[in-house]
Design brief:
Layout: E1 2-6, E2 10-11, H1 18-30, E3 34-39, E4 42-43, E5 52-55, H2 63-80, E6 85-88, E7 97-99, H3 112-115, H4 118-131, E8 138-141, H5 144-154, E9 161-163, H6 178-189, E10 196-201, H7 210-219, E11 228-233, H8 239-247, E12 254-257, H9 263-269, E13 272-275, H10 285-291, E14 296-298, H11 305-310, E15 314-315, H12 322-334, H13 336-352, H14 358-367
Parallel strand pairs: 1-3, 1-6, 2-4, 3-5, 6-7, 7-8, 8-9, 10-11, 10-13, 11-12, 13-14, 14-15
Length: about 375
Protein backbone atom coordinates (compact mmCIF):
# COMPACT_ATOMS: atom_id res chain seq x y z
CA UNK A 1 0.00 0.00 0.00
CA UNK A 2 0.90 3.65 -0.36
CA UNK A 3 0.45 5.22 3.05
CA UNK A 4 0.66 8.94 3.81
CA UNK A 5 1.44 10.38 7.24
CA UNK A 6 0.79 14.06 7.92
CA UNK A 7 2.13 16.28 10.71
CA UNK A 8 2.20 20.06 10.55
CA UNK A 9 5.77 20.38 11.87
CA UNK A 10 8.30 17.62 12.42
CA UNK A 11 11.27 18.10 14.71
CA UNK A 12 13.74 15.72 16.32
CA UNK A 13 11.55 14.22 19.05
CA UNK A 14 12.13 14.59 22.74
CA UNK A 15 8.60 13.91 23.90
CA UNK A 16 4.96 13.88 22.84
CA UNK A 17 3.42 12.82 19.57
CA UNK A 18 6.62 13.57 17.64
CA UNK A 19 8.11 10.40 19.08
CA UNK A 20 5.52 8.28 17.26
CA UNK A 21 5.99 9.56 13.70
CA UNK A 22 9.20 7.90 12.57
CA UNK A 23 8.75 4.64 14.52
CA UNK A 24 5.34 4.16 12.87
CA UNK A 25 6.72 5.08 9.44
CA UNK A 26 9.59 2.63 9.90
CA UNK A 27 7.25 -0.17 11.00
CA UNK A 28 5.06 0.38 7.95
CA UNK A 29 8.10 0.42 5.65
CA UNK A 30 9.44 -2.76 7.25
CA UNK A 31 6.19 -4.45 6.26
CA UNK A 32 6.69 -3.52 2.61
CA UNK A 33 4.55 -0.38 2.32
CA UNK A 34 5.52 2.88 0.59
CA UNK A 35 5.51 5.69 3.16
CA UNK A 36 5.23 9.44 2.49
CA UNK A 37 5.38 12.11 5.18
CA UNK A 38 3.65 15.47 4.55
CA UNK A 39 4.98 18.32 6.71
CA UNK A 40 5.70 22.04 6.55
CA UNK A 41 9.13 21.60 8.16
CA UNK A 42 11.79 19.01 8.99
CA UNK A 43 13.91 20.06 11.97
CA UNK A 44 15.85 16.84 12.45
CA UNK A 45 18.77 14.87 11.00
CA UNK A 46 18.53 13.83 7.34
CA UNK A 47 15.43 11.67 6.84
CA UNK A 48 15.99 7.97 6.07
CA UNK A 49 16.33 7.13 2.39
CA UNK A 50 13.20 4.97 2.38
CA UNK A 51 10.97 7.84 3.56
CA UNK A 52 9.41 10.07 0.90
CA UNK A 53 9.40 13.48 2.58
CA UNK A 54 6.88 15.78 0.88
CA UNK A 55 7.31 19.37 2.10
CA UNK A 56 4.22 21.57 2.18
CA UNK A 57 4.35 25.36 1.86
CA UNK A 58 1.47 26.59 4.01
CA UNK A 59 1.18 30.35 3.56
CA UNK A 60 -1.11 32.56 5.61
CA UNK A 61 -1.21 35.56 7.92
CA UNK A 62 -2.31 33.58 11.00
CA UNK A 63 -1.74 30.16 12.52
CA UNK A 64 -5.34 29.27 11.69
CA UNK A 65 -4.97 30.22 8.01
CA UNK A 66 -1.64 28.35 7.71
CA UNK A 67 -3.22 25.28 9.29
CA UNK A 68 -6.12 25.49 6.83
CA UNK A 69 -3.70 25.72 3.90
CA UNK A 70 -1.71 22.73 5.18
CA UNK A 71 -4.87 20.62 5.37
CA UNK A 72 -5.95 21.74 1.90
CA UNK A 73 -2.60 20.87 0.30
CA UNK A 74 -2.35 17.50 2.10
CA UNK A 75 -5.80 16.48 0.90
CA UNK A 76 -5.02 17.63 -2.63
CA UNK A 77 -1.75 15.69 -2.83
CA UNK A 78 -3.31 12.63 -1.18
CA UNK A 79 -6.10 12.54 -3.75
CA UNK A 80 -3.69 12.98 -6.67
CA UNK A 81 -0.99 10.61 -5.42
CA UNK A 82 -2.73 7.25 -5.55
CA UNK A 83 -2.49 6.75 -1.78
CA UNK A 84 -4.51 4.14 0.07
CA UNK A 85 -4.46 5.51 3.64
CA UNK A 86 -3.96 8.91 5.31
CA UNK A 87 -2.77 8.93 8.92
CA UNK A 88 -3.00 12.41 10.47
CA UNK A 89 -1.07 13.47 13.55
CA UNK A 90 -2.95 16.77 13.53
CA UNK A 91 -6.69 17.37 13.24
CA UNK A 92 -7.44 16.68 9.57
CA UNK A 93 -11.12 15.81 8.95
CA UNK A 94 -11.52 13.06 6.39
CA UNK A 95 -8.28 11.29 7.29
CA UNK A 96 -8.53 7.51 7.53
CA UNK A 97 -6.79 7.56 10.93
CA UNK A 98 -6.22 10.31 13.48
CA UNK A 99 -3.26 9.65 15.79
CA UNK A 100 -4.54 11.69 18.72
CA UNK A 101 -1.90 13.27 20.90
CA UNK A 102 -4.02 15.78 22.82
CA UNK A 103 -7.00 15.93 25.10
CA UNK A 104 -10.19 17.31 23.54
CA UNK A 105 -9.72 21.03 22.93
CA UNK A 106 -12.68 21.96 25.14
CA UNK A 107 -11.16 20.10 28.09
CA UNK A 108 -7.76 21.75 27.95
CA UNK A 109 -6.85 24.61 30.28
CA UNK A 110 -7.57 27.84 28.44
CA UNK A 111 -8.45 31.37 29.47
CA UNK A 112 -11.26 33.48 28.03
CA UNK A 113 -9.12 35.28 25.44
CA UNK A 114 -7.54 32.05 24.34
CA UNK A 115 -10.94 30.44 23.84
CA UNK A 116 -12.14 33.21 21.54
CA UNK A 117 -8.95 33.25 19.47
CA UNK A 118 -9.17 32.12 15.82
CA UNK A 119 -6.69 29.31 16.44
CA UNK A 120 -8.66 27.85 19.36
CA UNK A 121 -12.00 28.11 17.57
CA UNK A 122 -10.60 26.52 14.42
CA UNK A 123 -9.04 23.61 16.35
CA UNK A 124 -12.32 23.07 18.17
CA UNK A 125 -14.24 23.04 14.86
CA UNK A 126 -11.79 20.61 13.25
CA UNK A 127 -12.01 18.34 16.27
CA UNK A 128 -15.81 18.33 16.25
CA UNK A 129 -15.83 17.36 12.57
CA UNK A 130 -13.17 14.70 13.06
CA UNK A 131 -14.64 13.02 16.15
CA UNK A 132 -18.38 13.41 15.57
CA UNK A 133 -20.51 10.27 15.13
CA UNK A 134 -20.96 11.26 11.47
CA UNK A 135 -17.22 10.94 10.79
CA UNK A 136 -15.68 7.66 9.64
CA UNK A 137 -12.13 8.49 10.78
CA UNK A 138 -10.63 5.83 13.03
CA UNK A 139 -9.07 7.25 16.20
CA UNK A 140 -5.75 6.00 17.58
CA UNK A 141 -5.57 7.23 21.16
CA UNK A 142 -2.82 6.91 23.72
CA UNK A 143 -4.55 6.63 27.10
CA UNK A 144 -7.80 5.32 28.64
CA UNK A 145 -8.65 8.82 29.89
CA UNK A 146 -8.36 10.27 26.40
CA UNK A 147 -10.69 7.57 25.02
CA UNK A 148 -13.28 8.30 27.69
CA UNK A 149 -13.15 12.04 27.07
CA UNK A 150 -13.66 11.62 23.32
CA UNK A 151 -16.70 9.43 23.93
CA UNK A 152 -18.21 11.80 26.48
CA UNK A 153 -17.51 15.07 24.68
CA UNK A 154 -18.31 14.12 21.09
CA UNK A 155 -20.23 10.84 21.28
CA UNK A 156 -17.51 9.14 19.24
CA UNK A 157 -18.48 5.51 18.75
CA UNK A 158 -16.43 3.13 20.89
CA UNK A 159 -15.69 0.89 17.90
CA UNK A 160 -13.92 3.82 16.16
CA UNK A 161 -11.52 4.42 19.06
CA UNK A 162 -8.48 2.18 19.34
CA UNK A 163 -6.42 2.37 22.53
CA UNK A 164 -2.73 1.95 21.80
CA UNK A 165 -0.19 0.59 24.28
CA UNK A 166 2.69 2.79 25.43
CA UNK A 167 5.44 3.33 22.92
CA UNK A 168 8.97 4.48 23.70
CA UNK A 169 12.36 3.59 22.22
CA UNK A 170 13.87 0.36 23.52
CA UNK A 171 17.11 2.25 24.24
CA UNK A 172 15.34 3.93 27.18
CA UNK A 173 15.78 0.75 29.21
CA UNK A 174 18.13 1.05 32.17
CA UNK A 175 21.68 0.24 31.10
CA UNK A 176 24.23 -1.79 33.08
CA UNK A 177 26.61 1.18 33.24
CA UNK A 178 23.96 3.46 34.78
CA UNK A 179 26.13 4.32 37.86
CA UNK A 180 28.93 5.62 35.62
CA UNK A 181 26.45 7.61 33.48
CA UNK A 182 24.90 9.11 36.62
CA UNK A 183 28.24 10.15 38.11
CA UNK A 184 29.47 11.73 34.88
CA UNK A 185 26.22 13.60 34.17
CA UNK A 186 25.86 15.00 37.69
CA UNK A 187 29.50 16.09 37.70
CA UNK A 188 28.89 17.95 34.45
CA UNK A 189 25.86 19.67 35.96
CA UNK A 190 27.69 20.47 39.20
CA UNK A 191 25.19 18.53 41.32
CA UNK A 192 26.60 16.65 44.32
CA UNK A 193 25.64 13.01 44.80
CA UNK A 194 23.83 13.72 48.09
CA UNK A 195 21.60 16.39 46.49
CA UNK A 196 18.16 15.27 45.27
CA UNK A 197 18.03 16.03 41.55
CA UNK A 198 14.52 16.76 40.27
CA UNK A 199 13.94 16.59 36.51
CA UNK A 200 11.21 18.33 34.52
CA UNK A 201 11.47 17.26 30.88
CA UNK A 202 9.41 17.54 27.70
CA UNK A 203 8.79 19.59 24.58
CA UNK A 204 6.67 22.57 25.60
CA UNK A 205 7.50 24.42 28.87
CA UNK A 206 3.87 25.31 29.57
CA UNK A 207 2.54 21.83 28.81
CA UNK A 208 4.99 20.08 31.13
CA UNK A 209 4.41 22.61 33.89
CA UNK A 210 7.99 23.93 34.01
CA UNK A 211 6.83 27.11 35.76
CA UNK A 212 4.90 25.01 38.28
CA UNK A 213 8.01 22.96 39.01
CA UNK A 214 10.15 26.06 39.58
CA UNK A 215 7.51 27.66 41.81
CA UNK A 216 7.17 24.45 43.85
CA UNK A 217 10.92 24.27 44.49
CA UNK A 218 10.92 27.95 45.47
CA UNK A 219 8.08 27.33 47.93
CA UNK A 220 10.00 24.65 49.82
CA UNK A 221 11.33 25.65 53.24
CA UNK A 222 14.63 27.53 52.85
CA UNK A 223 16.51 24.86 54.80
CA UNK A 224 15.63 22.29 52.11
CA UNK A 225 16.99 24.36 49.20
CA UNK A 226 20.51 23.07 49.84
CA UNK A 227 19.25 19.50 49.44
CA UNK A 228 17.55 19.85 46.07
CA UNK A 229 18.33 20.90 42.49
CA UNK A 230 15.81 21.18 39.65
CA UNK A 231 16.83 20.56 36.04
CA UNK A 232 14.33 21.73 33.40
CA UNK A 233 14.98 20.30 29.92
CA UNK A 234 12.63 21.56 27.21
CA UNK A 235 12.33 23.32 23.88
CA UNK A 236 10.75 26.69 23.31
CA UNK A 237 11.40 30.07 24.92
CA UNK A 238 13.17 29.61 28.25
CA UNK A 239 13.55 33.31 29.07
CA UNK A 240 10.32 33.46 31.12
CA UNK A 241 11.50 30.44 33.14
CA UNK A 242 14.87 32.09 33.81
CA UNK A 243 13.13 35.28 34.95
CA UNK A 244 10.77 33.27 37.16
CA UNK A 245 13.63 31.42 38.87
CA UNK A 246 15.46 34.71 39.41
CA UNK A 247 12.38 36.49 40.75
CA UNK A 248 11.74 33.64 43.20
CA UNK A 249 15.37 33.56 44.31
CA UNK A 250 16.12 29.98 43.21
CA UNK A 251 18.28 30.57 40.12
CA UNK A 252 21.18 28.83 41.90
CA UNK A 253 19.25 25.58 42.28
CA UNK A 254 17.50 25.60 38.88
CA UNK A 255 19.27 24.59 35.66
CA UNK A 256 17.64 25.17 32.25
CA UNK A 257 18.69 22.94 29.33
CA UNK A 258 17.64 21.99 25.81
CA UNK A 259 17.35 18.31 24.73
CA UNK A 260 20.42 18.20 22.49
CA UNK A 261 21.85 14.90 23.78
CA UNK A 262 20.84 11.41 24.90
CA UNK A 263 18.03 12.08 27.37
CA UNK A 264 18.63 8.73 29.05
CA UNK A 265 21.65 10.33 30.70
CA UNK A 266 19.36 12.85 32.41
CA UNK A 267 16.90 10.19 33.54
CA UNK A 268 19.72 8.15 35.06
CA UNK A 269 21.28 11.19 36.74
CA UNK A 270 18.01 12.34 38.34
CA UNK A 271 16.29 11.06 41.48
CA UNK A 272 12.71 12.02 40.63
CA UNK A 273 10.78 13.16 37.54
CA UNK A 274 8.70 16.17 38.58
CA UNK A 275 5.88 16.36 36.03
CA UNK A 276 3.14 18.84 37.05
CA UNK A 277 1.85 18.93 33.47
CA UNK A 278 -1.08 20.90 32.11
CA UNK A 279 -1.72 19.00 28.88
CA UNK A 280 0.66 16.16 28.04
CA UNK A 281 -1.71 13.39 26.99
CA UNK A 282 0.83 11.91 24.61
CA UNK A 283 3.88 13.00 26.57
CA UNK A 284 6.22 10.05 27.06
CA UNK A 285 8.48 11.58 29.70
CA UNK A 286 6.86 9.62 32.56
CA UNK A 287 7.18 6.36 30.61
CA UNK A 288 10.80 7.03 29.62
CA UNK A 289 11.59 7.89 33.22
CA UNK A 290 10.02 4.70 34.55
CA UNK A 291 11.73 2.57 31.89
CA UNK A 292 15.08 3.96 33.06
CA UNK A 293 14.27 3.36 36.74
CA UNK A 294 13.34 6.95 37.63
CA UNK A 295 10.21 7.38 39.81
CA UNK A 296 7.61 10.00 38.93
CA UNK A 297 5.67 12.68 40.81
CA UNK A 298 3.01 13.95 38.42
CA UNK A 299 -0.24 15.82 37.94
CA UNK A 300 -3.11 13.57 36.79
CA UNK A 301 -3.49 14.80 33.21
CA UNK A 302 -0.81 13.14 31.11
CA UNK A 303 -2.52 9.83 30.43
CA UNK A 304 -0.30 7.52 32.45
CA UNK A 305 -1.71 7.83 35.98
CA UNK A 306 -2.16 4.10 36.45
CA UNK A 307 1.36 3.29 35.27
CA UNK A 308 2.92 5.95 37.51
CA UNK A 309 1.10 4.55 40.54
CA UNK A 310 1.78 0.91 39.66
CA UNK A 311 5.49 1.69 39.35
CA UNK A 312 5.72 3.25 42.82
CA UNK A 313 5.31 6.89 41.82
CA UNK A 314 2.95 9.58 43.13
CA UNK A 315 -0.07 11.18 41.40
CA UNK A 316 -1.21 14.55 42.75
CA UNK A 317 -4.90 15.35 43.41
CA UNK A 318 -7.03 16.11 40.34
CA UNK A 319 -7.34 19.88 40.88
CA UNK A 320 -3.79 21.19 40.83
CA UNK A 321 -2.66 23.24 43.81
CA UNK A 322 0.90 24.28 44.44
CA UNK A 323 0.50 23.38 48.11
CA UNK A 324 -0.06 19.72 47.16
CA UNK A 325 3.12 19.38 45.16
CA UNK A 326 5.12 21.28 47.80
CA UNK A 327 3.81 18.97 50.54
CA UNK A 328 4.67 15.88 48.50
CA UNK A 329 8.20 17.16 47.84
CA UNK A 330 8.71 18.04 51.52
CA UNK A 331 7.75 14.52 52.59
CA UNK A 332 10.17 12.98 50.10
CA UNK A 333 13.04 15.30 50.96
CA UNK A 334 12.62 14.83 54.71
CA UNK A 335 12.52 11.03 54.38
CA UNK A 336 15.83 10.12 52.76
CA UNK A 337 14.91 6.45 52.41
CA UNK A 338 11.57 7.08 50.65
CA UNK A 339 13.03 8.17 47.31
CA UNK A 340 15.45 5.22 47.31
CA UNK A 341 12.51 2.88 47.95
CA UNK A 342 10.60 4.46 45.07
CA UNK A 343 13.61 4.03 42.76
CA UNK A 344 13.85 0.34 43.63
CA UNK A 345 10.12 -0.18 42.99
CA UNK A 346 10.32 1.66 39.67
CA UNK A 347 13.37 -0.31 38.53
CA UNK A 348 11.65 -3.61 39.33
CA UNK A 349 8.49 -2.53 37.52
CA UNK A 350 10.49 -1.51 34.44
CA UNK A 351 11.97 -4.99 34.08
CA UNK A 352 8.61 -6.48 33.04
CA UNK A 353 6.73 -3.44 31.68
CA UNK A 354 5.58 -3.55 28.05
CA UNK A 355 6.37 -0.06 26.81
CA UNK A 356 7.55 -0.77 23.29
CA UNK A 357 4.73 -2.11 21.03
CA UNK A 358 2.76 1.01 20.06
CA UNK A 359 4.06 1.26 16.49
CA UNK A 360 3.41 -2.42 15.82
CA UNK A 361 -0.19 -2.27 17.09
CA UNK A 362 -0.87 1.00 15.19
CA UNK A 363 0.50 -0.56 12.00
CA UNK A 364 -1.77 -3.59 12.50
CA UNK A 365 -4.80 -1.30 12.65
CA UNK A 366 -3.77 0.88 9.71
CA UNK A 367 -2.99 -2.02 7.37
CA UNK A 368 -5.62 -4.45 8.65
CA UNK A 369 -2.93 -7.10 9.12
CA UNK A 370 -1.69 -8.62 12.35
CA UNK A 371 2.04 -9.09 12.73
Amino acid sequence: MKIALAIYKYFAPSSGIQCDVLPLAEELYRRGHDVTLFSTSWDAPTPPSWLDLSMVEAFGLTNASRSAEFIRVVKERFAAGGFHKLVAFNRIPGADFYFAGDRPVAMQEAGFWQRISPRYRRNAALERELLSPESSTQILCVSPRQKLEFERKYGTQEERIHLLPPGIPVNRKLKPNAPEIREKMRAGLGIADDVVMLLNEGVNPASIGADRAIAAVAALPAELHSRVHLVVCCRGNQKPLKKLASRMGVEDIVTLMTPDFDLLELFVAADLLLHPSRNEMAGVSPLEAIASGLPVLAAPNHGWDHIVQESGGVILPVHFKRANIVSALKLLLLDEERIEEMKKLTSEYAKTADFYRRSKIAANLITGCQE
